[in-house]
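Hi X.,

You mentioned you wanted examples for the new student's onboarding notes, showing what a folding record looks like when two proteins sit in one file. Here is a clean example. The first protein comes first, with its sequence line followed by its structure tokens.
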Amino acid sequence: MYTMKQACEVSGLSYETLKFYCNEGLVPNLKRDRLNRRVFDDRAVSWIKSLKCLKGCGMGIREMRDYMYLCLEGKKSIPERMAMLQKKADLKVQIRQVERSIEYIEEKEKFYQEVQKGKRDYISNLLSEENQKQE
């Protein structure tokens, strides 16, 4: 069994987020110890990790709850769950956008370093050619 703190460490969620998820009913069959503190078994921790992934996929609390209820229905709800997880394509688009942003930043860093070292003339798309020559 895991304490809240241990479950947070293992799952990568903050204490506040896990507490919120528990209060929202997103951790089914929640167990408590003799002092009425939340405790989690391996299955609960595995589910908590799933919640973190679902959140990372862009699901809100309502969607995560809907997904959980479908999971609790068992095998018959697999087609509906698969439909909910079709966000994979959106995530791939987001990944490509982030990769392009990183490439842009790396190109700018290289450009600025070369300008500062005198290896390259400074060129700006925002300044007129006349203003660039004055610098």
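Then the second protein repeats the pattern, sequence line and then tokens:
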Amino acid sequence: MRLPLSNARRKSLGLLGAAALALLAVPAAAQEFPVRGKPIRVIVAFPPGAGVDAQARAVTPKLAELLGVPVVIENRPGGGTLLAAQEVLKSAPDGHTIFYSASSTMAQNPHTLLAATFDPMKDFTPISIGARGPLVLVVNSALGPKNVKDLVAWGKANPGKLSYASFGTGTSAHIFGQVFAKQTGLQMEHIPYKGGADLAADLIEGRVQMAFDAAPAAIQNSRSGKAQIIAVAAPQRSAFLPGVPTFAEQGIKDIDIVSFLGWFGPAGMKPEVVQKINAALAQSIAQPSVQEFYKQGAYTAESSTPEALARDVKQAYDAWGNLVKQAGITKQ
């Protein structure tokens, strides 16, 4: 004979059932992250050996130690960083795929590339800022100019012979080049590259005369004596390049937006997962060895809250949108 349940017993069983259902409803990513034995992929939009790649590799050993799983770099160069972005967008938002991205992916590409159909504020999950550093203008030393005025004079004396390299159509380097050409009246051919190694080789050999490049790569290339940095794209001179004047000091306006790099994931990542990666990144970036490594390349390594990175993306998106309009660049 089955005895009737007391009210207290019935209530107790109801609470246990509700708790069990709640547990089942919690996504696996929130119950366990990282999944034991499952690597975390860090997608980088540049080839091995490039500055952004080197920065990511400086951070990931400590990140792996703190999270307790392997962290592997996957290089996806090409498409003005879009190939890498698309890989992240199609990945599961479980924290096992993250993106170390130049600001060009989020702030410039949506204004300049037809293929950049994503919304940078909605389709990625911000995790933490990674670094800040300016682009610089570097020229082939054999060309002769030591400053912007001399470069403009050379370009006007040699119409049709000036070309500039960038790391992809629609990137900050491309936009700066167009703004520079418009302000100076120079005719310049834009030559996009998939990665820094080919860009550096062609610049040093004189196959292109100048490049808007990230400071780490430009500094390394200038050490050969075959390339020279003549301007910094920032509101003030860089502490790492105190002898190099800004564009504004040399009479060129608006080429002063400082680039950043950030850590992102696909949209839909759980807050618990984001916070765990954010905390591990903060410790990894704060290491003295990482700080010194970034300084050697004229970048400042730093971390932030996800909310602060989201604000940076929105501000950069708006600023670059205005600059694209000024340059007269249309989506390609």
